[in-house]
Amino acid sequence: MENETKGKTEVNDVKEIKGVKDYKDAKIKIDIDRYRVKEGDTINLKKFATYCDQDVDKSAVKNYAFPQALDEISLLQAKLFAQSTYGLIIVLQAMDAAGKDSTIKHVFSHLDPNGVHVVSFKQPTEEEKDHDYMWRINKALPRRGDIGVFNRSHYEDVIVSRVHNLIEQGKMPKNLISKDIWDIRYRQIRDWETYLNENGFPIVKIFLHVSKDEQRDRLAERILNKQKNWKFSMADINERRYWDRYQELYSEMISETSLKEAPWYIVPADQKWYTRYVVAQIVIKALKDIAPKFPEMSKEIKDQLEEFRKLIESGSVGMIEEMQDMMLPSDK
Ligand code: ATP
Ligand code: MG
């Protein structure tokens, strides 16, 4: 209560000091490499955790380390945007109710909306069906300096299409649909992602790994909780029938398409606080790998800014007019 009267800056200061003091010795470091699938590895989803499997302090993560991670992402994103040479693509795939939407909301929503775009890929429209499967994905790619977050992606075209034989009901020429079609698509996806990476658009792919029990509870919650009713879909209940097939196909697809430069991460998704923290750390790593920097200013401009800074600090009322007099010829 006392702090509330103290003004904004001080409240923030107190919060920071509190965080450092309370969580100084707390365990907050996690190893995200254990969730990363190495190129060439054959994985089985059953062997990956759906629960937090590292020794971390939940309260310290929620109240201190996660907000800090978000600040770190913010700064890196500002640099990515200012530099405007690389674009980052983040793909999220998962079984229904694994928490894609809420992960996106918590990890990305505080970022500058000018430079971050979320695109959700639903069942293809008629227009989309009239094109190759990458057409709509290509249209949604981020520009240089931006982060594109894909809520579902081209990976639906090797997963749901396969579970429900959609490719045969589609408009692909029948003579091009051989039994190797899925291997062909894996190859196309690897090539496409390599191409993007070689052009300054790295991709990081995240599979939110939820357990079958947790999915049941979350689907039930969509029925029981009135505020979540809008999320309920009969299709989700039906898709659960194919749980094993999905898990098998996801295991194969992740093995086939995890590349050194475009890796898959299999992130435990039964506990939302942990999922968000792991995803935030993955995003930080992806941005650090790009190592974006604010554009370097010329010595001339730096010297000029230094002069302007002195002018502002001198408290001169007519400082803007004085700056005009000091402007470089190229700025006039
Ligand atoms: P939520 O978690 O809120 O349910 P969602 O991503 O499942 O989010 P929905 O609108 O419920 O969103 O479902 C989108 C549906 O579109 C999914 O069932 C998905 O499999 C399907 N879909 C996406 N891409 C394709 C595709 N290329 N071909 C066929 N179906 C697709
Ligand atoms: Mg759904």
UniProtKB/TrEMBL annotation:
It holds the Pfam family PPK2. The keyword Kinase applies. Residues 72-291 form the Polyphosphate kinase-2-related domain. One of its GO terms (biological process) is polyphosphate metabolic process. The keyword Kinase applies. GO terms for molecular function: phosphotransferase activity, phosphate group as acceptor. Keywords: Kinase, Transferase. Signal peptide: none annotated. InterPro entries: P-loop_NTPase (IPR027417), Polyphosphate_phosphotransfera (IPR016898), PPK2-rel_1 (IPR022300), PPK2-related (IPR022488). This is PPK2 family polyphosphate--nucleotide phosphotransferase. It comes from Dialister hominis. The lineage of its organism: Bacteria, Bacillati, Bacillota, Negativicutes, Veillonellales.
